[in-house]
Amino acid sequence: MNKECDMNIGYTLAVWLLRIWLATRAIFTGLVKFQGKEMRFLPANNTPEEIQFAKEMQALLDAGESVQGAVEVNTLKFAFMQGLPKAGPMTVETFKASPFMPEFMVVPYSNTLPFLLIGLGIMVLFGICSRISLFFMGLLYISLTFGFIIMEKTMGQDSAAGAAFLGVHVIMIAMALILSKYNKLELLPCHKLPLCNKLCK
């Protein structure tokens, strides 16, 4: 193995690590926004009778009845989806009140944020037009950074810390873009798509 080939393998492994980290970060940040708590009745054991009894009790819980022995569990559901927190300094209402954020944009942004994070994360992970998906992921993190910046009056140092934290994400995306010519194992490379062919040459 010559020195140049050895270096190329190192760069390829580096860009894979960046892709995996950035994708994991985006996908699970998006999924967490669908997380909530609900009451569940769990079977004491896995016998058919216990499983059937648990299903009947769960049906009562779903109907709004109070059932003794039910426990609160974390689960993922579309009903729990919230792009921005319901409480704290960065809620929908807080951003609506900001003079820097057009009110008509806040709710659509909040509603699409989880899907954008998951979608871009999947694209980066599987290598679907990696350079373009990385670029749009960077823009998404910049938009989140903007949210921290305009909340500086109410959040103080937490605002600066949040902006700096997202800045690290953008730097990692920039590094992945710099190393993009060493990117391998892409499901759909950029040059295969007519729309972004010119950008990726």
First-last Cα distance: 28 Å
Whole-number mean pLDDT: 87
| Secondary structure: number of strands | 2
Note poorly predicted spans: none
Helix tally? 8
Q: Care to describe what's here?
A:
This protein has a two-stranded antiparallel sheet with strand order 1-2. It has eight helices and two strands. It is mainly α and 201 residues long. The longest helix is centred in the first third of the chain and has 30 residues.
Structural topology:
Elements: H1 3-32, E1 35-40, H2 48-62, E2 71-76, H3 92-96, H4 103-126, H5 130-150, H6 152-155, H7 157-178, H8 197-200
Antiparallel strand pairs: 1-2
Helix pairs in contact: 1-4, 1-7, 4-5, 5-7
In short:
Helix content is 62%, strand content 6%.
Q: Main traits of this protein?
A:
201 residues; mainly alpha; two-stranded antiparallel sheet; 8 helices; 62% helix
